[in-house]
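Example record for the data management plan.
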Amino acid sequence: MGKSAFKLHIKKGDTVLVLAGDDKGKSGKVLTVYPEKNRAIVEGLNLVSKHRKPTAQNTSGKIDKIEAPMHMSNLMVMVGGKPTRIGRKFDENNKLQRYAKKTGDLIK
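Corresponding structural encoding:
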């Protein structure tokens, strides 16, 4: 699969609401975005168990809980504590900016 040809509505640092899955209704901050896979990692959500082998520092091994990527279609950006759809329009400097469709406010 090649690189995504379109811009994504979610960026690193956004606060998002989960729309579907085990963590439905929860919100968190986006840590990483993978545009080629259309997925994002959200802080503290979609936790999976990662089994670690024993090492010299950790002789017994352990099971860590880490965040797994979730599909962008299951996430919605929150602006001002409320979920909103995202649009794009040009600002006064003729630069394409994201804006909240609910309020009309520019994002960042």
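Summary line stored alongside the record: The mean pLDDT is 90.
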